[in-house]
Amino acid sequence: MSDIFELTASLPEIELGPGDVLIRDGEAAGAIWILVSGSLRVLKDGIEVNTITHPGAVLGEMSLLLGRTYTATVEAVESSVLRHAADGAALLAGDAEVTRLVAAGLAERLAFVTSYLADLKQQYGDAPGLAMVGDVLRRLEERRAPRAMPGSMREPDPEY
């Protein structure tokens, strides 16, 4: 099994200085970045929600896969180096192993969030302000579309 650095060795690298913005909330999606080194801050509505420091972390993939604009702003906390795939869809379509690694990363993040929400519900039950946790867990379960359909896209009953 390859790692994300081996698979993306041919991508160009970009450098960011402290405060440089990589992604802006609301901008059109399409690119994917892989963190080589440094530290990035994720902001939603001006509130820091995450810090990304793990080399190999992938950014931009959720918006690309969902066909939506970027949903947060990402900026460098310190000097950072990232690999850049301007056409993220082509990167994913061109290498099944890259796609598998991106999917595994997304699955890890979803498992963490689901476990965290379940833990909150278990610890605090229906405490004021946390009653919404049950709703969030239920909505995560309901939002599984689009479902994969068995078979292929070929005509099931061709005329020949």
Topology:
Blueprint: H1 4-7, E1 13-16, E2 21-23, E3 32-37, E4 40-44, E5 47-52, E6 58-59, H2 61-66, E7 73-76, E8 80-85, H3 88-94, H4 96-124, H5 132-142
Antiparallel strand pairs: 1-8, 2-7, 3-6, 3-8, 4-5, 4-7
Derived from helix and strand composition plus strand pairing, the structural class reads alpha+beta
CATH fold category name of one domain: Jelly Rolls
Query: What's the CATH H-level superfamily name of one domain?
Result: Jelly Rolls
Distance between the termini: 42 Å
Helix share of residues? Answer: 25-40%
- Please compute the radius of gyration using only Cα atoms: 19 Å
Shape verdict: globular
Strand residues, percent? 15-25%
Mean pLDDT: 85
In the CATH hierarchy, what is the class of one domain?
Mainly Beta
For the largest beta-sheet, the strand count, sense and barrel status come to: 4 strands, antiparallel
Q: Which CATH architecture of one domain?
A: Sandwich
| Number of separate strands | 8
Order of helices and strands: HEEEEEEHEEHHH
Numbering strands along the chain, what is their spatial order in the largest sheet? 1-8-3-6
Task: Note poorly predicted spans.
Answer: 148-154
Give the count of helical stretches. 5
